[in-house]
Amino acid sequence: MPEEELIRTYRETIRPLYAYVSRRVGGDLGLAEDLVQETWMRALDAWPGKGIPDEPLAWLLRVARNTLVSHFRRVKPQLLDPASIDLDGERFSPANPDAAAVVGWGMARLRRSHADILEAFYFEGKTVREIAADRSLSERAIEGRLRRARARLKKKLDRMLRLPAASRGRAAREGTEDARPTRTR
Predict the structure, then answer these.
(1) Residue 137: half-sphere exposure toward Cβ, Cα within 13 Å
(2) DSSP 116-178
(3) H-run or E-run covering 25
(4) Which residues contact 120 (CB under 8 A, 6 or more apart)?
């Protein structure tokens, strides 16, 4: 893999990659830098054997998303006042690092379809119309999906924010809602 090509790819992708990660961690610069570095380390591990992908930014963004999900599954967010996270409020934005950590924690536990639509709306700033066009769905269908995704996220966050301190650690270690608990007799 030519070093010049790698340097060119880095220069072309670092700003949009950093912006993507930074928005999702509420502007926490240190955390954003760590996650971007981890993403690029994965690229440097994978690309010498496979070559730089045709769409390196898309590859990096997918790895960054997975890295973010892994991070938020590992960390236990600090408690916030539940009133500060009004998902239904028109002005809600996870721009505050504490709110971003709690929202990221909750989104890491949602089905991918729910997390993707919330991410498009809140983090990418897309309108319902734009999301509908991207997914070839009606605006009404997107509104319904967005409403259900918000309800799922709110349920996850309410559960976490209302847990006693002893139970909170257990809840922070729970998997996504896709994971089905096993029943024992």
Answers:
(1) 14
(2) HHHIIIIIS---HHHHHHHHT--HHHHHHHHHHHHHHHHHHHHHHHHS-HHHHHHHHT---TT
(3) none
(4) 126, 130, 131, 134
Q: How many Cα atoms within 13 Å fall on the side-chain side of residue 145?
A: 22
The pTM score is 0.64
How confident is the model over 121-132, as a mean pLDDT? 90
CA–CA gap between residue 123 and residue 142 (Å, rounded): 16
Burial of 71 (0-12, 13-18, 19+ CB in 10 A): buried
Q: What is the pLDDT of residues 46-89, one digit of tens each?
A: 999 899 999 999 999 999 999 998 998 887 666 555 555 666 66
Ordered domains of the chain (ranges, CATH): 3-74 (1.10.1740), 82-172 (1.10.10.10)
DSSP secondary structure of 66-134: HHHHHHHHH--PPP--GGG--TTSTT--TTSHHHHHHHHHHHTTS-HHHHHHHIIIIIS---HHHHHHH
